[in-house]
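Q: Structure for this?
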Amino acid sequence: MSLISLAGIAKSFKSRGGRPWMAVTDFTLSLDEGEFYCLLGPSGCGKSTVLSMLAGFTPPTAGRMEVFGKPVTGASRDRGVVFQGDDSLYPWLTALENVAFGLRLRGMAKRERRVRAMQMLEMVGLAGQEGKHPTELSGGMKQRVQIARALANEPRILLMDEPFGALDAQTRGVMQVELRRIWERMGVTVVFITHDIDEAIILGTRVGVMTAGPGGTLRADIPIDIPGERTRLDPRYNTLYDRIHGMVRDEVERARLRSAA
Amino acid sequence: MSGRTIAAAQPAGRAVRAMAGLGRSVLGFLPYIVGFCSLFLAWHVVAVYVVASVLFPPPTAVLLRAIALWQDGTLQENIGVSLRRIVIGFVAGSVLGIPVGLVIGSFPLARKLLEPWTEFLRFIPSVAMITVAVIWFGIGETSKIFLIIYTTIFIVILNTAAGVAAIAPNKIRAAQALGATAPQIFFLVAFPATVPFILTGMRIAMANSFTTIVAAELVAANEGLGVMLWQGRMYMQIDDIFVALVSLCILGFAADRLFRLGVARFAGRYDVTP
């Protein structure tokens, strides 16, 4: 049995005029334990909505969604979330207190959670920054705090919504390498939303390409079978890049035509 | 050789740096002091050379009168009375307003139930409530404290509720994904995230409290700065009026600074931008 299974998931919202519009239609996907799934698609295709439903923040309007064989009824500790921006961090807490927040919620003793949070900060490369508040940290550091905060809770699934989207190219590259290393070490299942093809190929064990929105669905599901460390010089990287790029370009073009019509 | 010179130069260097630091902070304050002095200088010039009337005393005359009033104890008594009313009413209004604002901001049902109250009553200026307050509670302390509570509570409620509404949804979602229960979200996320808004509301309420207390004391009271103003008019003691006015400036200024200092000291971590 798969870890995550989505069958015929759809999500519609009501627009201002009261007419419903589809954010996601007929989305079917199943994921196994330990995968690193990158969901790729042009902006507005509904990929963040899929993640939001997986996290349990918003229920789907149709379809069946199960995690560990049980229907999702709301947010839960076994699905950690890393958000795109830094507005999910708590500015009144230090980096350490932010990371320890989930442990505090479940009543872990102060000394114990401090030790755990310090380990997590060390793992994401923030040793020595534990006393700083989020406003004193750079964009990359804040995303590291978010990752550490989610992982400190030992979730079985880590949901990441364009976590590196707001970072500069250099920082993003470093963060990608480190995320891959953390994933290999922790054995957590990752669902990673991105619109960056390169990022998806460098990180994922599988890449899902979504059709253009509104009402996006899964167009293709491509396994990335490049073992070990991935480089952009690998011919397999280039083949995959061309193939996925072609699909995304098609979708962007279709979206453009649809909005022009 | 060179090592020794450096070692010898070090303490001197530290002293020089400390001096430079002190100099910088004095220099930073200097425009402020100049600004204050120019205010009193302008007052003096206008009072002595432009208006030149007993109806507009210069700062020196006001200062002398203030010293005299201080020596016979009336000044500190009136200040004390007004200040006590403000502090009690302000604290009570904030303590009552914060939870109500949190509830209004957090629960849509509570908002619908309570908003008619706040949205209706807040348009009655506290000054307009003076008559009612005096009829209900007399001219003693109760009516003054009631009016200060009245002037404080709505601003604090509105700011607190607006603060709750302004919380980034991701802050709540992050807590949910970390396993937070609804009470945990309320106390550990919504409340601390709202602190900057609460403090802003309290600061505005503090300024309004000064307006209200003077108006209330002008109309009906036995003591306080407002009474001092009123009696000054009755007996044409123009210097007394100015002493009361300057006292209000100093009190208001000091209260605001103290509040800001307290915010920076105790709530700096809540990312308050004063």
